[in-house]
Amino acid sequence: MKSTIVASDGFLREHERLTRRFFMQSGLTGAALLSMTPTTALSGQEGAGSPKPPVEPGKAGARPDPYLTPAGEFRDVSRGTPLPHSLPDDKKQAVGMTRESWSLEVISDPDNPAKIDQPLSKANGTALNFDGLLKLAETNLVRFLKVMSCLNLGCPLGMGLWEGVPLRDVIWLTKPRENVRRIFYYGYHNDDPKQIFRSSLPIGRVLEDPPGIPPVILCYKLNGEWLDSKRGGPVRLVVPEAYGFKSIKWLSHVVLTNLPHANDTYAEQNNDVDSPMKTFAATLVIPRFAKSGEVIAVSGYAQVGVSGLSNVQVSISPSDAEPAEDDPWMTKLPWIDAEMLPAPDTWHGLNEGRMPADTFGFDAAGTPQSWPMLLTNAHWAIVLPGVPAGEYTIRCRSIDRNGIAQPLPRPFRKSGHSAIEAVGISVAD
Q1: Which of 358, 365, 373 is nearest to 142 (CA)?
Q2: 33, 14, 80, 31: which is closest to 343 by C-alpha?
Q3: Residues 152, 50: one domain?
Q4: Is the same domain home to 58 and 39?
Q5: What value, to the nearest 5°, has the Cα angle with vertex 34 and ends 33 and 37?
Q6: Dihedrals φ, ψ of 193, to 5°?
Q7: What CATH number is attached to the domain comprising 400?
């Protein structure tokens, strides 16, 4: 059965523009260039006289995403029965899922109490409301790019420009004194304790940021627009370097605790809840068939995790030549460096296509200070040399900024996707 990747129009247009320029500079023309058109490659359409669509690598129904994914095009993995974002407007208003009715309690854990002098609570009339959050944003606003990625899926859910207030600024309002080792937090889930989806962080991560990583934020905007309820609005937590389960939607409670360990809901499902996002590469366009001796054009994207991305490499080898048993990470394959493609000229989906001033990781002109950027997607392309007739397997892998090749340094499935993708191709005379 042929798998289908459903990609957004914006992503495909950007990928086509970048790869077409690269392949033309590499000398590809005519039918070879046409066969690399992502809009043809990923649509599954094959008209009379058109080139055969390239292989569509199976990703369990997942899809690649654009630099900035429109809010309505994010993949949704929300939990709840019913899904909280599907509630009628009057119910959302009643339970605090609108900007007018939202409030946040920041309190001490009664079972493992932290010492705080001024908890923010509804009972005391001190819970933080939306106007109070925006007041903090007047002096403490943060914007950053982040690809939202699921721990157990092999491709991103979407990437956006997230905007909000550092969580630490709200934590300090409670005047914490001691016995604060972690925080845990959760959102609205149908007033049903059994449905609560909870996550947690060490207090050190909330109060201090690793080099090159933005702060944890209370997020209320995505791509410059108010966060809608499907994306977790009116306010969600966003943890820049973490997988999506840490960025809780419909946020309602933050609890300061002396508990020494994580108490995430995901931990109960045999997941590694403390591993940050991994770096990995994946293909988007590979021709189904090629002629012997002719070059083969391949392109794809990479997720840039906390270890960064220095390059992507691609290999082509006979399908009957399986990697050696003593080489589980496929280090002995004939890997060839791909070309990392540049950052977008225009940030589609933002006002005038420009990155707002003071966005984390960008200069005053709206240009990325480095590329590929941490915690985002990047495009790549390569022209492979021709090979004799036969059946072949094309693979790709990322090389992080420490020089470590995928699937290392963390090859374990429950700490995030890192498997090396493999796609078959037929070469004939």
Answers
A1: 358
A2: 14
A3: no
A4: yes
A5: 100
A6: -55, -30
A7: 2.60.40.650
What's the one-letter identity of residue 57? P
Return the ∠ at Cα 185 (arms to 234 and 148), rounded to 5°: 60
> How many residues are present in the chain?
429
Query: Residue 249 corresponds to which tokens in the numbers above?
Result: 């939607």
Pairing of strands 103-108, 251-257: parallel
Top-confidence residue, 326 or 9: 326
Q: Which one, of 423, 93, 142, 113, lies nearest residue 288 by Cα?
A: 423
> Are 322 and 399 members of one domain?
yes
Q: In this structure, is residue 4 part of a structural domain? A: no
383: in domain: yes
Contact of 215 with 166, CB cutoff 8 Å: yes
Same-domain check for residues 26 and 62: yes
Record the pTM.
Answer: 0.88
> How many alpha carbons fall within 13 Å on the CB side of residue 197?
23
For the residues of 278-331, what is the DSSP string, one character each? PPEEEEEEB-SEEETTS-EEEEEEEE--TT---EEEEEEEETTSPPPTT-TT-T
Here the tokens at position 257 are 């605790």
Per-residue pLDDT tens digits for 154-185: 778 899 999 999 999 999 999 999 999 999 99
164 in Cβ contact with 137 (< 8 Å): yes
Which residues, in sequence order, are CB contacts of 322 under 8 Å at separation 6+? none
The sign of the CA dihedral 357, 361, 367, 369 is positive
Asked if the structure places residue 2 within a domain, the reply is no
Query: Rounded CA gap, 154 and 15, in Å?
Result: 19
How far apart are alpha carbons 287 and 53 in whole angstroms?
7
Say if residues 313 and 336 touch (Cβ distance below 8 Å). Answer: yes
Q: Using one digit for the tens of pLDDT, what is the confidence trace for 72-124?
A: 989 899 999 999 999 999 999 999 999 999 999 999 999 999 999 999 999 99
Domain hosting residue 13, numbered range: 9-69+278-428
Last residue in a domain, options 214, 239, 269:
269
